[in-house]
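INTERNAL AUDIT FORM
Audit reference: QA-55
Scope: verify that the stored structure record matches its stored sequence.
Auditor: D.O.
Record contents follow.
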Amino acid sequence: MTKFKTISADSHINEPANLWVDRVQPKFRDRAPRVERLEAGDAWIIEGALDPINFGSNCSAGIPQEQRKPWIRSEDVRHGGYLPGPRLEDQDRDGVDAEILYPTPRISNSLFWNTADPEFHLDCIRSYNDWISEFCSFNPDRLWGVAMIPNAGVDGAVAEFERALSLPGMRGAMIGQYPHGGEAIDNLDDALWAAAAKRKVPISIHVSFATQAQGDKSRSKMTGDVRFLDVPSRISQFVNTGVFDRFPDLRLVLVEVDSGWIPYLKEQMDDRYSRGTEKERAKFKKRPSEYFDTNIATTFITDHFGVKHRHDVGISQMMWSSDFPHGGSDWPLSRASIDSQLQGVPESEQFQLLAGNAMALYGVK
């Protein structure tokens, strides 16, 4: 096993153009997500998406800012985005020992959103999980796969969780809506939390739930400035419905939302809780803020404020990420960004933020 010093707790792949066309059932092949060549550049055509989805910004790491553009051709995508051998070379160039790998957000959100045909929805997600497992199997010590979990019924979600997490190279699972469907948590979802807690597999939310069809960014409510906008609602749902009391081993990872806002939310949730009368107050085993210290983790790319206030955030719950190969990444100069943020942080705490916390969360020694 590699002696880990730097793990990116949130990196991405660039899905190959033939991923779904080659893998979905024959009856779905004409509907499968696919890349088409348009005048502006190549783009994903996905059922339920409002527009063709370009991907230039999803593979722009290392490209000078003035040369970046949202519309590119498939052949311009860096090989490390979809081939594991070159990906390890990209890691080495950036001084990264391992990466936790997520799909492209606008593509995965389109798949989570599209539940009009549950069988098609599940087939697309299964196809992705099979592909990312094969990718990570090239070197499972350094390539850590995260499975997408369908949101068209709890039974299907649990079945796919068990199937996908039994595949080689898989270490985590992500949800884009609650497994029963939609963005309001339900006791029905307990079946997935129970399965994840039993396996000690973290459940991730990447930036936000898929609450609207994907399309041109001008239509989106979410921007890069407020990536943490959605997840406080999810935290409140998990805490206030007693999920962590019922499943104390469940770990929720809030990915690419940074960490500096956590102390404020902890304070406010405790304050609201303390002001309720004994009769009105939800029956928690702990104060709301305490669940942040045991059950809720975050990843950060650039968060000087969060690092400065790491003990208020909960230093055991923070994990650095490179976001490679997306435009938010400092690849291949991540070390300079790390050194800037972690200046003055003791070495033992640096290790926690850069590798130790991720190792503990994902069960790696």
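Auditor finding: record pair retrieved intact. The longest strand covers residues 7-12.
Action required: none
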